[in-house]
Amino acid sequence: MGAENRITVGVDTTAIEQLAKIGVPTVRRSELVAADHFPGWVKKRFEKTFHWNSQKATSAVTRYEFTKRAMDIFFLALAAPFLVPVLAVVALLIKLEDGGPVFYRQLRYGRNGKPLWMLKFRTMVTNSEEMIKELAHLNEVEWPEFLITNDPRVTRIGKILRRTSLDELPQLLNVAKGEMSLIGPRASSVPPSAYNEAHLSRLDVMPGIAGPGHIWRRSEVFERKCELDIAYVKYRCTTLDLYMLVQTVLAAVLKPKGN
Description:
single chain; disordered N terminus; two-stranded antiparallel ribbon
């Protein structure tokens, strides 16, 4: 089944308590296997930098986080004149289709498990959450992921927004507020209490609009994405973030597949 025909939706927040019963799968492969997706220079840079003592390593992380935030603000300011007209046109098209809300808010969990309301352009019918129970038997992946091919809840404009990833643009407001970054592990609907201990390190950094699972394995399940996220947390650096940002932009422009 092609990734372009798959549609992933968030976990129904009204049924989040089910996670405690179902549980989250454990990471079965090492982070070294997941890190094979990263460029070779990433691991070489890590080995060179973090053979220091702990004090110097801590200082390097602090500088990285300051630079990362400055980079987010710089690129937001640079892109704003081009993105504002696009946001306005998309909002108008969504409103004209069915008169419903333009934005969709979903509860996600960010750095250190802190809850945040992640914004997206609405791509589904207004009662999509209520329809999850009716469509549960069509779910094609393991919980907590929920994926249906040609999901009937997606609107006409929603299909275009998902295919081009334009539905993600409102998350730039989350970035401006300091709740998210341009690059980082995708904020998950799964609460920290449902995580296995092996997964928790993905919450050590700020979530991003695009992350390693988004770039290299867009359609894989939660467990596979966790492996890449954990490797990213270990090897993260400004150069890697810039590399991933370029990959994200190129993929959106040249190979739009959507979620």
